[in-house]
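Appendix B, Record 12. Input sequence as logged:
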Amino acid sequence: MVWSYILEYENEQNPFEHRKKAILKWKEFASEYIVENETVLAFGESLFKKGLKPKDALHVSCAKYANCDYFFTTDKGILKKKIDDLKIMNPIDSVLRIDGINALIEKLGPVDAERFISSIIKEDFDYTVWQRRLFEGKSLKCLSQEAMKS
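Logged structural output:
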């Protein structure tokens, strides 16, 4: 998780003290704090030119600068944008997806859950390739021990 100067600034402006404190608690989980720099400003400017509001452009730019894989927001304007190498997601939808995947795995097992998901999203899924990667580099003894634990 990343914290940034623009998030800090936005939270400081929050008129609701209880919300401000609740949001600030997330800062302790951050592994990195992004401050203003030329790269953040330049990419933020390019995002602004693509239609993001200035504050939103800086938020997303900080995430990109930190090489985040995901950017969580409930802002519909940001959710509609596509940013290379950054998955923009609604946090509530993310929790729902995780719960759904866990339910599928519990009911179908990991392999059939993956097959089911692949059949819905119409992506190619090669079970053999997936399986090879899953067990790649594991010794017979290690694999056997893992199987015994499950």
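The chain has two domains: 2-89, 93-149.
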